[in-house]
Amino acid sequence: MSADFPILPIESILPHRGTMLLLAGVEAWDDETLTALAHVDPAAWYADAAGNMPAWIGIELMAQAIAAHVGLLSTRDGKPARPGVLLGSRKYEASVPAFAQGQPLRVQARELLRGAEGHGAYECTISATISADVQTLAKAIIKVYQPTDFQAFIEGSFTA
Question: Is the pLDDT of residue 157 over 60?
Answer without folding.
Answer: yes
